[in-house]
Structure formats: C-alpha cells, structure tokens
Amino acid sequence: MALWLVPFVGLALWSFCRFCCRAFFLRLRLPPSPPLVEVLKFLAGYDKREAHLTYTSWGQRCGQLFSFALPDRRVVVVNSEDAARALLDPHSRKTSERSSLAQGSTSVQVDDARDIQRKLINDEFNDSAVTTYRPMILRKVKQLVLNLLDSPEHYHEHGHTMASSVLMSALYGYDIAGPDDPLVRIMEQSAAQAQAMPGKTAGSSLMLSSLPFLQRLKHWFVQILSDDEEPVKSFDAMDAPLRFVKQRMEKGFYPRSLVSESLTKVDKNGYGDQIIKEAAASAFATATGTITAAYRTFLLAMTLSPESQKRAMSEIDAFMNSTDKLPTIEERESLPYVSAILRETLRWHPTRPLGTPQVATEDNVYGDILVPKGSTIIPNHWAMSRDTEVYPNPEHFQPERFLNSVGELSDANEDDSPLAFGWGERSCPGRHLAGEVLWTAIAMTLANFAVGQRSVVGFEPHWTKGPISSPLPFPCAIIPRADPDDIRQEMYSED
To answer: Which residues are annotated as a binding site for heme?
Structure first.
C-alpha cells in the first residue's frame, strides 16, 4: 500500500466505526461494503474503469444498495430503480444537493441559492410552461434537418448545434450564428473547465474530493488538464449572455427566455443577477450535453437496430398520410412507438451513468438498512439500466419493452426516463424541455431520413468518458427519404 494512503485509511476506519455504532443502537445495519482492498485500489487510482462500471461490479456482489467509507463521509451507491424510488422519492426532503463530491461523473458545489435556481428553471420549463417554447423548438429541429441534408457526414456536430441553439434561445433569447458561435464557445469552455476532474481516475478524484485542503488545488489541476492556453473565466461565460438580454430588454424588444422572465421578477422575489446568471449557465452546461449525447445515441441505435427504425417509420408514415402534416410534439399521443424509442434511447445507454450526488440530511432507512445522516447518496443509472429483472436483454435496443399488448405506452403518465432525469423533487428541473426537444428531433429525423451503416461491417461503438457519456463518431449513413428539394421546402414552410 502506498504510504500516503495510511492516514486516510485510518480516517476511513474511524468513520466506518462511527456509523456502525449508530446503526447498532438503532437495531439496523449499514449497507454492505465491497472488499477494503478493492476500495483502496479504486481510491488510489489503480482501478482505471469508469466509476459507474466499478459500482456496478461491486453491486453484483454486495446488492442493490452498498456503501464505503471516505475520510470525511460515507458514500452510499444505489444500484436499482426500486431502491432509488424508495429512498429518494419519499425522502427527497431528507436529502440535499449540498455535496462537494467529485466522483468521476459530476462535481456538485451548491448552497441555499441552488433551491432558488431550481425554482427559476422549473417555473419556466415545467410541463405546462414549456409549451410556450414549442414553436422555437420546431424551428431549431427543422434547421437540424436542413443541416443533415446539406452535410450528413457531419451528423455528430449537427446534433450538438441543435442542442446549443435550443438552449441559448430558451435561456437567453439568443439565436446562435452557427456551430462556431463565439458566445457558445466561451460558455462551453467554461463548463468543460468546471467539470474537469482533479484526478486522473474516478477513484483518485473521489479521494481528492474528500480532503478539503486539496480542493484549493482544483483550479491548478484544471489549468494543467485543460487543452486551452488560457482558462476561460467563469464570470465571462455568465456575464456576457446576461448583458445581451439586458440590452435587448432596454430596447423593449426581446423574446421570452428564462433570463428575461427572471429579470422581470427580481424586485418581487428579492434575488439578484448572480442567482439568475448561475441558474442559466448551469442549465446550459447540463442540458446541452445531455440532449447532444441522447440524440447521438438515438442515431447509433437506429444504425444498429434497423427493425426498430422500420417500425417507427411505418407509424410516422401512417400518421402523415392520414393528417397530411409532419409529426410534432402536439401529436405525441398518436405516435407511441416514437415515444418508446425515446425512452429506450435514454435507457439503453444513459447519458449520465451516475446521477447527481445527494447528501442525507437525516438518517434514512431502507428495509433494515440505515443510510446515516451525512452520507453521500449516488444513484447508479448504469447499473439500473442493466437490471435484467426490469429490462430483459438489457444490451439490446428494444423500444417494445415500454409498450403494452395493444401497442400503447405502458405508463403514458411517466416521465421519459428517470435514468436520464432523476427522481422526485430532485429530478432535473429542465426535463420537460429536454424531453420535448428530443422527441421532436427523433420524430423529424425519422420522418425525413433513413439512418443506416456505411460500408463498415461489425464496428464496435466507443463512448466518451466523464460526467456525460456520448457515442464517439461512428460510420453512419443518413439518407433522405424524399426528394431533398421537397424536404427543404417543407422545412422552410410556416405551419
């Protein structure tokens, strides 16, 4: 064992004994733990796997709920949807996002202002308010179709441009100039630097996060790990779009957006610019990556699952023949298989393999297991998506798993996927916006294109590492299903 680990092992053992004593007096047991040697290897950086894969492997031996000790906290990993719903949904008021945990998937540093930011986002993008943005979403998705027509080989970039365009419009009322928009570039660089791990592996990053004095080195690590010669200052990324909105508002002509709506309520609600710009910047960083990754995953799934694609096209064609119009989100109930494809896309390869860490603000109990106050709770979306009892043949892309015997969604009232957006009051406040963007993009893509493999047989997909998991570029042929000029005319038409 490396000598530098000795004092940390001592602290971890002390933490473990403290929690064991509490569990004993409450006549409960702590979640089972993986072998200490494996935990130490993980924390020391010898385990090179992504954290969600390590947690999944441990869960197969320890159960759907397990834990291990850090010097300053206990980490509880939730590996099943049932456990997540039982622990997080009814106890959402007993958990908080106040965690400095950096576990290879995300780093969360929040305070009381976070609740205000969540409320701002939820008020503007809840299931009823988000309908205001449907015309804008449709315009942006139509531009995606045009981009795919012009340069289908750049599909990887087009999905990202679509996501950035929607978010900049919804958050700031800003129409991007193209894939290299300077304002978008500044915001993306800032987000990438904020998410940079202060360690070379998920485990070493986790250990560093548990030592407060090492947190002061985070900015140094970011500069070392960054490919940019000059790190982008976070206040530049937040202030520039805020100034843009304020200038438009002063002129009296501005589209609706999260920032403009929030600014009109500043005096009434008593929060300032800092809350608003942090909420918008956080939403951009989170939602852009999630939407981009999910759309790329959809294209990969269609490339590998031609039968699913054919069934979706048949459903869309029947709808278009009977209504003489393109599928839009208003007709979602008429296209259940398209909705099932979205759900299966988010299940098949979760865009965020690990959910947002939460801290137990009180002792929580699951069965006879104690989740002690102060524990950091991590939902392992990847392990949940591979649960064979819930999802038979989990590696196969099967939208039918979300349909009942008559071809309707098995639960039409459920969100598209808790594996993508979380549970209860701590679920993503922008999930309705993201869901509508992705559904529209999927429906419009399949209405206008056939997605297939280029002349490469048996390729193996590869994925990015980090907080968001997205497929790396793969051989993909995107072929118009109608005359390109007719498709362009349809995209330019006003509905």
So the answer is: 428
The per-residue pLDDT of the chain, averaged, comes to 83
DSSP three-state, residue 350: coil
How is residue 313 written in tokens?
Answer: 């096209």
Torsion of Cα atoms, 251 then 256 then 258 then 260, to 10°: 20
The rounded distance, in Å, linking the Cα atoms of 383 and 381 is 6
Residue 211, sorted as left (phi over 0), alpha (psi -120 to 50) or beta, turns out to be: beta
Instruction: Tell me the CATH number for domain 3-492.
Output: 1.10.630.10
Q: What angle do CA 99, 101, 105 make, to 5 degrees?
A: 120
Inter-residue contact 458 to 116 (CB < 8 Å): no
Residues near 469 by beta carbon (within 8 Å), at least 6 away in sequence: 293, 349, 350, 351, 352, 353, 463
Q: Has residue 305 got a pLDDT over 50?
A: yes
Task: Specify the 3-state DSSP secondary structure of 401.
Answer: helix
Fill in the amino acid letter for 332: R
Tell which wins on pLDDT, 351 or 495.
Answer: 351
**What residue spans define the domains of the chain?**
3-492
Instruction: Name beta bridge partners: 478.
Output: 451
pLDDT for res 489: 93
Q: Residues within the annotated binding site?
A: 428
Q: Which of 315, 301, 414, 393 is nearest to 350 (CA)?
A: 301
